[in-house]
Amino acid sequence: MAIAKAHEHGTSLHPQYRPDIDGLRAIAVLSVLVFHAFPEVLPGGFIGVDIFFVISGFLISLIIFKNLEQGRFGIVEFYIRRIRRIFPALMTVMLLCIAGGWMLLYADEYKQLGKHLFGGSSFISNFLFWKESNYFDNAAETKPLLHLWSLAIEEQFYLFWPLLLAFVWRRKWGFLRIMGAIGLVSFAVNLYLVGHDQTAAFYSPLSRFWELMVGGALAYINLHRPQLNRIHRDLQSVLGLVLLAVGFALVNNTRAFPGGWALLPTVGAFLILSAGPGAWCNRKLLASRVPVWFGLISYPLYLWHWPLLAFATIIEGATPNPAIRLGAALAAIVLAWFTYRFIERPLRSANSLRPVWALAAANVAVGVVGLGIYFNGGFVQRPLNERLDFIAAGDVFLGSRNSDASCPKFNQSKILPEEVCLSNSATPRVMFVGDSHMMALHSAVYSHAVKASSIMVAGHSCYLYPNLPYKAGGAHDWGNNCTAIAQEALAVAARTPSIDTVVISNTYPRGDLAKASRYELAGKPLSQREAFLAGNASLIGQFQKMGKKVVYVMDVPHLKRDPHACVSRFDAAAERDCAYTPQENAALRAQYNDAVKALQASLPGLAVYDPTPVFCGDGKCLAKVQGKYLYNDNQHISVTASQMVLERMAQQGLLQLQQP
Length: 660
Known about the structure:
The chain is of the alpha/beta class. The chain is built from 25 helices and 12 strands. The strands form 4 sheets. The chain has a 6-stranded mixed β-sheet with strand order 1-3-2-4-7-8. It has a two-stranded antiparallel ribbon with strand order 5-6. A hairpin with a 2-residue loop joins β9 and β10. The radius of gyration is 28 Å and the shape is elongated.
C-alpha cells in the first residue's frame, strides 16, 4: 500500500533514502496485520492505514516538488513509476485470488470477487465497497480484496495531485496556502460525514485526502521552510510515537472514525517524519534492522495478509481459531518477502519499458477477467455450487426487497424515501407490512411461487410504529424513515377498500427486552418491550378500526450461521451444525414470545401465527428440507420457506391465496 520508496529506479530526482521511514512503515503494516488477525489484541490497529497515507503523501510530494523545481517533472514518467511500484505485487495477489476463488468460492461469492477484481484493477474499490455496505452485504471478513479500498484512495489522489502541483508551480502560487485550503475542506468533509454517514466518511476520497496532504505539506516544509521543523527534533519524534500509541490504545471500531480521531495517527506520523533521520528514536528504534526489514516488505505484506485471512474465514465458516490466524499472518510475511525479493525488485529495477507494458496489460487482463466472472454469475456450473443448492446462484430475493413501478402503476401510490412497495393488483386483497423479514416472507408471492392478490409496504431495518418517534441511525439508506413508512402503510390501507387482510411481520427484538430502545412516547424513552407493545398496538389497532383482519406473523427461528458456512468447501458430505435446537430457539425467543402474548391479549381479534413448526419438528430445527435451504442467510427465509409458510397460513384460514 504506501507506497513509493525513495530509492526507486529512474532519472528523476528522488530524496535520500531514510531507513527510519521504513521503520515507520513497519509500525503501520504490523499494526494493521495484528488488528486483522487478532483484533482483541490491538483494536486500534487499523489506524496504520492513516500512517501510510501520511508517508505516501510526504514521499510522493517530495519527489514531485524536487523535480518541478529542477524542471525534470514529467507526468508520464510519474505514472510509469507508479506502475513499477504498485503493479508487480498487486497483480501477483489478484491473480492468485482469481485461482483461489475458482476453487473455494460459491458462485455468488465468486461473482462478487469478480466485481472487486475489476475495482482493484481500476482503482475504484473504495466506491464499490461504499456502495455495497448495507444490511445484506457479505461480512467484511469474507471479502478477500476489501483492503484495496485504501490503495484506491491513494491512486485517486495521485490522479489530480501531480497535475495540481504542476499547475500551481507554473503560476507561482503559494503551495502551502493551496494545500492548506484543500486540506481544510477535506477535513471539514470528514467531520461532516462522520456525523451523518460513517460509511461515506470511511470510504470517500474527499474525507481522506487531507491525510495525504498532511504529508504533502511536510514535504514542502522540508524543502522550503526547514527552520519550522528543526526545533526539538528528539521531542518531535517522541511525541509522534506517543500519539501513535495513544491512537492504538483509544481508537477502536466503536469510535466515529476517521473524524477527529484520525488526527492521532496523522499528526503522530507527521511529527516522526518531521523529526528527520537524526532524531534519537528515529535513528535508534525505527532505523534498526528488524523494523527496516518489515518496512521494505510492507506493501506486499499489506496486500497478502488480508486475502489469506479472508479465505481462512471463508473455509472455516466462522472466525478461524488463533492458530490458523497466526499461520495466515506468518504465511503473509513469507509471501511478502518472496514477492519483494523475486517479483517487486527485479521488475522495478529493470531498465526496459517492457515490464511496464506487461504489467499494464496484466492489470487490464485482471479487470477484464473480473468483469467476465461477474457477468457470468460467478460460474454457477462449477460442481462446488451444487453443495449450496440455489443460494449459490446469487441473491435469490433481491427483487422482493426493492421497489419497482408496480405500486404507482396499480395503486397510484407515491413511494416514500426508503419505502419498499410492491403490488400485483389494482384491487389487492392482502396487504403485507413489515421490515426485510416481511420482504423475505413475501418473496414467494413476488416470484409467483404462490399467487395472492396483494400489495406490500415495508422498510428495511424498520419497526413500523406509526406513533413512536425515534432517533434515526443515518448509517445507511434505510432505517431513517420508519415512522413515515408506517403511516403510509395505514394510508394505503385506508384508501384501498379491497384489502381485507393485513399481514404484519418483523424481526424479533433479541436479548433483554428491558433494555432501552431508540423509541420514545410523549417524550418518555421506552424499553424494547414497551416500544414493541406500544408501536404494534397503534399499527394493528388502526388497521382493525378500518375493518381489516390483522394477522401478526411471529418471526422465524434464526440460524447459528449463514448457509454458506454450513457446507464444507472440501467435502460435499460434511455439513456443519447450522440450526439451533428447539430448546435453544425457545430460550432465545422467550421474552419475545411473552411480548407477543401480551400484544395479542391487548388486541381482541388479532390473529397470531407462529411459523416455528415449519422449521422445527421431531425434536430438531432444520436449515434445509429435502435438499432445499430454508434460509438465504442466518435469518431471512428463502423462497422455498416463504411458500411453505404462506401455504400453511392459507390452510389454517389466516390468508386467502389464489388457486394456481
